[in-house]
Amino acid sequence: xxxxxxxxxLSGVVGEAFAAEGMDASYGRVQRSDxxxxxxxxxxxxxxxxxxxxxxxxxxxxxxxxxxEADPLLAKVELAGPGFLNLTVTDEALGQAATKIxxxxxxxxxxxxxxxxxxxxxxxxxxxxxxxxxxxxxRAAIIGExxxxxxxxxxxxxxxxxxxxDWGLQMGQLITQLEIEQPxxxxxxEGNTGPYPSESPVxxxxxxxxxxxxxxxxxxxxAYRAKAQAATTALQQGRPGYRALWQHFVDVSxxxxxxxxxxxxxxxxxxxxxxxxxxxxxxxxxxxxxxxxVVESEGxxxxxxxxxSDKKKLNPVMMVKSNGSVGYHSTDMxxxxxxxxxxxxxxxxxxVDNRQSQHFEEVFRAxxxxxxIGLDRLEHTGFGTMNxxxxxxxxxxxGGVLRLRDLIDMVVSxxxxxxxxxxxxxxxxxxxxAEIARKVGxxxxxxxxxxxxxxxxxxxxxxxxxTFEGKTGPYLLYAVVRIRSVLARxxxxxxxxxxxxxxxxxxxxxxxxxxxxEAVEGAYQKRMPHLLCDHAFSLAQxxxxxxxxxxxxxxxxxxxxxxxxxxxxxxxxxxxxxLTILGLPIPDRM
Length: 590
Hints:
By secondary structure, the protein is α/β, with parallel strands linked by helices.
């Protein structure tokens, strides 16, 4: 629902005309025109209604069109083809719609009906403790943050959870490798139950060095792997020294993660990890055993989720492994239980890449069978990969995985070069130019990702992303700054003036402003932030055409000047709101 949608108003009016002809009002649904050169809106309902009632669609269309001719909302109603209705809205109605949008703090955004709003948890981080963020973490962070902001705009009560990977085999590997290098640390003395040092024996750089060594050794040396697995099990079963050491790993990793995510404008309401639900796994498993859902299989305790109708093989969900340890299946199950019990989650959305789809299908089925939450309340909002210009997953020149910090530095450096080439902000201080370059670089990176359909792979090309022309983040930042500058030069934003539409460029701009409602609703319902990117770009282009065609600050007619300045403010506010939802940082000037 929305109070500003032209489509809703049009659909209501046309629906009434269909109802007056004895048809269901739903046939009056209006949409944006496939042929905007003929009319901004169209209704195709006459074809479906006539087929259902075995009538002539053109005759029905003519009857509906005749009923609409006198409606004050419509300037023109034309019948085309076998019964299509082409609809043009009056300038007065456009002005009224624009005035309402200008007065709305949310710029006419769609919102859910209050009784439909939900408590939602969005899981969109997923980094592992002890590992630096790399390019593989980029899309989850950017898409997840945009989804969180979009859901809040729609009225849902939303929590974003990073869901740290802090409880698996990598913890045992780190403990094992650190003991090899520093065996005298008090954490490795089984007789020492604490207290332990408050200062961590390792930094995040130490962890970044230790993990590759431990991981490689675990793959190559069976004895090393067995020791790491034993350390993992001991940690999960509560060995005090290992728990204290694990807490150090988490603390130093979290501090580094917060810094890197902050660079992207990404934040989390919850910093929960797999370890947080360790104490839930046992009781949950026992309860499900009593219910007959968890059964023993080859020494492990599992939930069988496969159905005869499945066209692919689904693995059983493993609550406890044969060696007594737990893994992703069990921690994900316990996390669902925690999110429902402690936070009242009515919907849980996982922003994780497409390659994990089977894992989530297995866990979701098990959670539904266990009665934790309805299957339709669990969503895997998957995404494709970010690839290099060779079409393969993005790597460093040496073929390694690029750190996220280095990727951010890459686009910021490219932004600095573009700003210098264009002599932009030559009069600004070095500090301000550096800050602008940072915002431009981050906006380029985020918009370059979000402007692609979430489910698709895309090519990462910093030179193309960091350009001030075309459909890019920098272009949109510049558009916002430019629009604001019009208001600054005029020293007015139109106040509370009614917006009056008389010129084609004004009509086009108002129609784009009115389309924001559908863009927000579409992005929300389809979980596709790129629809909001499309709208932001179209709005910026419409403003550019309006700016070229109409006098604004120097308009001699006082009322027309105020109207246009308020229209400028509406465009500035809506574009700012859209970019804020997408997480693009906007500089004050450029």
